[in-house]
Every structure is written in structure tokens, then in C-alpha cells.
Amino acid sequence: MNFNTERLIIRPFKSDDLHDVFNIYNNDDTCKYLLHDKWTYENLHEEFNKKLENSSLTKESMLSLAVANHIKVIGDLSVWYTDMKDTVEIGVCFSNEVAGKGYAIEAASGLVKNLFDKFGVHRIQANLDARNNASQKLCKRIGMRKEAHFIQDFWNKEEWTDSIIYGLLLSDLN
């Protein structure tokens, strides 16, 4: 999947994106609410190769997309099918350097539109750490609704955390 928005190019990752992506994920604040720790020089190639391999969305494979602003990669969009028919989950991660500029909203809105239009998905959802206020705001801004808040349901990074589920149907956008 490739698409452009007003200011962004969204495409599969390329090998020369390595350093831009490392700059996103080599940050404790960025990775605070993710399932993995920040990237290191030791695991850089292993982690980045996963992004390169995830170049198409199928029932068996996740899709990882680079978000570039004509200068460099500033973000990462991920999509994968859940066990429920025609339902996908999305993940969004952006460089702290571009926070507050609307890039995440622009990219995620374009992703949602493409998932409904080109993939015919029935439902898009996001499952996030309840402490991640930025992701909650993003979900709301792209039209998703908060559907659930689970208390201490997920063990991650040596602690129990709350999870929040956001959902979106095509009919919600009309």
C-alpha cells in the first residue's frame, strides 16, 4: 500500500530508512507505552528487518508503513488483521521531533480511509496503554470511539497496565 496525503508520503519501508527509524525508536519516551523497549545499536538491524519484511497486509502478515515528510521518515504506521473477520488493528508511532504538527492525524486518517476503501475492512481498532494520552487524543481525532477500559489486564515491562480499546466502523465516518 502506497498513498500520499497533503504533506506526507506513506509507503513500505526501504533499506535506506534505517537511521531515520532508529531515531524514532531509540527513545525511552517514544517506547514508554509500546510493547518493546527502545531500540539499541545491538538490536537495530534485527528490529528494522522486521519492518522491511512487513510489506503487505494479509491474514498472515502485518503491514508496516513509513511516513515521510519529503525530507525523512518521521513515523511508522502498522496494520494487522485480528482473529475477527474483516477486522484490523492499527498502531501509530511518530518521532518526538514532529509532535504537535498534525502529521500523525494526517497519516492515520489516510490509513483509515485506505483500509476501508481498498481493503474493505469492516472494523478498525486500536488497543493502547491507558496512560498513553497522545494516542487516545489521536484515536478521537480520527473519529474512533472509546469502547472499553480494562483495569490492570495487561502485563508489560514488569508491571500491570490498563488497556483502552478504540473502534471505528465505516459508518462512523459518514
Q: Radius of gyration in whole Å, from Cα?
A: 15 Å
First CA to last CA: what distance?
Answer: 24 Å
Q: Major beta sheet, specifics?
A: 8 strands, mixed
Number of strands: 8
**Which assembly state applies to the chains in this document?**
single chain
Could you give the order of strands across the largest sheet? Answer: 1-2-3-4-5-6-8-7
**What portion of residues belong to β-strands?**
25-35%
Low-pLDDT stretches: none
Helix content: 25-40%
Q: What are the secondary-structure elements, in order, as H or E?
A: EEHHHEEEHEHEE
Based on helices, strands and strand pairing, what is the structural class?
alpha+beta
Mean pLDDT: 94
Helical segment count: 5
Large-scale geometry: globular
Structural description of this entry:
The structure is a single chain. The chain is of the alpha+beta class. Helices cover 28% and strands 34% of the residues. It contains five helices and eight strands, in the order ββαααβββαβαββ. Strands 1-2-3-4-5-6-8-7 form an eight-stranded mixed beta sheet, sandwiched between helices. The mean pLDDT is 94.
